[in-house]
Amino acid sequence: MEKKMASKLAVICYGFGDLASQFVWTFVGSYLTIYYTDIVGLAPAIVSVIMMGARIWDAINDPMMGAIAERTRSKFGRFRPYIAFGCPFLAIFAVLTFTNPFGGGSAAGAIWAAVTYIIAGMLYTLVNIPYAALSGVMTEDANQRNKINTSRNIGMNLGMVIVNALSAGLALRFSGEGAEVANGHGYMMTALIYAIISIPLFLIVFATAKEKVQPMHGTQAFSFKDTVNNLVRNKYLMIITLIMLLQMTAFMGRIAVTSYYVIYCLGSFTMIALIMTIPSLGGIIGSFFVPFFAKRFGKRAVLMGSMLIQAVGLLVIYFAPFDNITMVLVGCWIFGLFNVGFPMTLSMVADSVDYMELKTGIRTDGTAYATYGLATKVGNAIGGSIGVLLLAAFGYVANAEQTVEAMNGINIVVNLIPAILFILGAAACLLWDMSDKDADEIREKLKAKNNQTQETV
Predict the structure, then answer these.
(1) What does pTM read for this prediction?
(2) Torsion of CA 260, 428, 148, 357, to 10 degrees
(3) Model confidence over 248-272: pLDDT tens digits?
């Protein structure tokens, strides 16, 4: 029996989902922290509480959403309906996070910020956990899974290129003539444009992706305890979750505070576009080589190598004097060209799902991929919450000229700490002892079991 495969169109269009996600979530991740501190006027400690509180809730909410999605049965499949019906609400709340109806740093303003941010995060979960789970059920072929996740990585980096290249200019344009930094109206209008663009991109994924891999057993009643147990019992999922947390905290956490480095250390708001676009451009270029290297050297080796070299790029930026823009840009290109680890982690999540299904007979696509979405948001929140607290500890003062100590602290938070996290993530890869050959054998055994089950029905 031939392997069930996704169409070429579905593989290409799958990346549109992460492209859409970047329009809403990268903009939130890149600018919401500085919007809260410099526009709304919230204290760094309040920002930290809001972001970490949201992530604590996500630790409960994300596995629940994954479990609900994988138990869903509809004419559109298990995961696709959530993409279609959830994306308009995600777009709306992505805009609401950049509104400040109460003005100033009042208690009402803080509550509004917390509520809109938490709901936006829940809607991101509603759409993106099913979207991520699709990559594991669109095909039975391991190489095509790598291509599907590479398509996603290209979409992610292309979205980051567009958002990072255009956001500062758009925000300034909508902030009024002569503005040197963005104001609240500028941020809100930019968020609105991105939100409108994101909806049709999500709908393209809904229309082209098909769910080819189905669980061998029937639907089980939802139990939060069983859901958590299934996650914890899957040793490979726990390993890749640890890797993703380190990887995402280094990458997404850095995005949350990079604007502080560009504005206050390099001295230019408009350079945000350049500094934050180069790594994404590099990631797009590097992504085209991922399937080849993964096939030749294995997913674990590619993932380890990418994170180690990304750490080198960040160290180059960290040691660069603030007036040596050439050295900063070289570091950005090194960091970006090897920003190719995400397809590997996603494919390894799929391997862990197959491993668990063979071991227990339970397929946990939704809850397993919930760990990826959770890692993304936790990483971004740590950058936004712990990062901003560290900035305050180093002496950062909003909308003021920073001291030498504060600028050095910003450099540590934005470049040195993420480099260390990437190195730790690479080291954690050593815990993963499932080879790509082992993963292929697991899929063959699952296929044989499935065929046997169908023959006895």
Answers:
(1) 0.71
(2) -130
(3) 888 878 887 888 899 899 988 778 8
